[in-house]
Each structure stands twice: as structure tokens, then as C-alpha cells.
Amino acid sequence: MKYVPFGNTGLSVSAITLGCMSYGESGKGTHAWSMDEASSRPFIEQALEAGINCFDTANVYSLGSSEEIVGRALGDMTKREDVIIATKVRGRMREGRFGEGLSRKAIMHEVDQSLKRLGTDYIDLYQIHRWDHHTPIEETMEALHDLIRSGKVHHIGASSMYAWQFSKAQYTADANGWTRFVCMQPHYNLINREEEREMLPLCRDMNVAVIPWSPMARGKLTREWGATTNRTESDDFGRYLYSMEKSDKAVAGAVGVVAEARGVSRAQIALAWVLRNKAVTSPIIGATKLHHIDDAVAAVELELTNDEAQLLEEHYLPHPIVGFS
After folding, report:
1. Which uninterrupted H or E stretch holds 286?
2. What CATH number labels 3-218+275-304?
3. What is the DSSP letter of 5?
4. Domain chopping of the chain, boundaries
5. Which end of the chain is more exposed for a tag (fewer CB within 10 A), N or C?
6. Is 240 a catalytic residue?
7. List of the chain residues with pLDDT < 50
């Protein structure tokens, strides 16, 4: 496994991060495709054996069940000081006015709940899971800064927002002597490249780590176009993300052409393209079959030629902004 600097921090992170949204009791939350604890643990074990040291989850994934599964598995399989645990806050966890959002009250309650579920006394990376339009950014940034001062959180990050919002948060922190975000988790893959316009250049300029979610477009780039899985049958959010059928299908077809010529899987090609971008630090991959981790690890060493990259990119058309709410 290759390890890379994590933005402007002292962390060294594996070039692949394991996303843990698929690990959680299916009766909790909205992820009908989630895997129970017994089914999930082999994936975390294989990731560790492959050298992956960063695990990304969120409080809202299966309403906390993902954090519980990840925390117990890492506690059993490795030393806490050897891994980076990342989780998120913002989504609705319970009924009531403060059951979601990024108010100080919500953040202070949810961080303690996440710590309890993860079975740890600190979170390496605590991320805001989208922008909160109902809370002043000053309140959010000060609360996050206080979590770092308390030792409950070591670094903070953000996910999927407009570049002006991310800039506003960073300069609000600077103006008040609070802690800046050290990473951005954007939606980025071959069939949604809109973050190339502003967010990725901004992150490079600020030396902010970039850990893209859905680098293989929820699996759409890893199989024949139109093929279905248990997840695609119930994934309303995925259908919302990828709606430009004609151009997206053409891009996916190009992935298949390059993969066949190389004699490797489509997943390796799609992920190698994301890793090719100098702004990208560690893509977050989901794994529900053990070979998904093998493909991700292999992609780290796969270097695409300029001609291959051009073939993969030539069918792309601009997309509407999605995934920010």
C-alpha cells in the first residue's frame, strides 16, 4: 500500500480509504442494502491486511450501527493508534429540533454519541456532512474548534458543498483563531467531474486533503451499463445522482474499452483515473464483495497513459450540481 501526506497535517494516510456506509444493521436507517456485523467484519479485516489505515463512516449510516460495527472490528483487529477513524455529523439522528444539523447543541451531543458507538476516546477526523443553512458558520466552526481543544477530535473536515461555502468556513476560522478544515470529501468520478471547476483547485491551493466519495459512481463504472444489484434496486439517492443517461453511458463504455485492452477490471480503471488527479489524496471506496478491495489496492499502482485518459474523458458533458444537500 502507498501512503501519502494528509493535506497540511502530520497524518500519513493510505492511498485508499475504506468507506463503511454499507456496514450496518439493515433495519436501521434508509440503507436497505447494508450488511450485518458478521458479514461486515471480513471486509474490515481484509482492508487492514491490505494496508488500508483510514476508515470513513458517519453517525447517520444505519443510524449509528455502522459506527458500532466499525468501532468493534477495529478494536478487535488492530491497535487504535495505528488507524485513522473518520466520521461525520449533520444528518438526522432522532426526532426533535436538535436531532440534526450543525448547531453547537447538536454537535456537542452527537460527538459524544459517536465516541460511545465507536468505542474510542477520540476521533481522528470529524467532518460536517454537508452545509447547514440554518446555523451560522461561526457557531459551527467554534464548536468544532472546541472539540479539538478538548481532545475529543484531532482534525476536522467537510463534505460536498459549494467552494464559496468552504472558503467562508476557512476564513471564518482564520479570522477568529479557530481550527481550519484539513480535508474535503467531494463527490468526484468519471461521470461527475463538476468539482474540477472550483473545489479541487481550491483544495490544492489551500493544501487541503481530498477524499472523494463514490469514485466509481456507486458501481455504475464497474459493470455493464444497466446492470442491477440489490443496492441499485433500492438506492433512490443513486438514481438522483446519475440522471444523464446518454453521456454517462458513453463514459462507462469507454471505461470498459480501456479495461478490456489492459486486461484488468473496470473498477481498477475508474479508480486509477480518480487517483491520477493531483488534487486527490485518498478516494473512499465501498466494498460489499472481497474482490472490491483487491481491485482498489491494484488501482493504486495502475498508471493510465494520456491517450487512455483522453478516451475516458472525451464523452463527458457538464452535469447539474447534485449531492450538496
Report:
1. strand 284-286
2. 3.20.20.100
3. E
4. 3-218+275-304
5. C
6. no
7. none
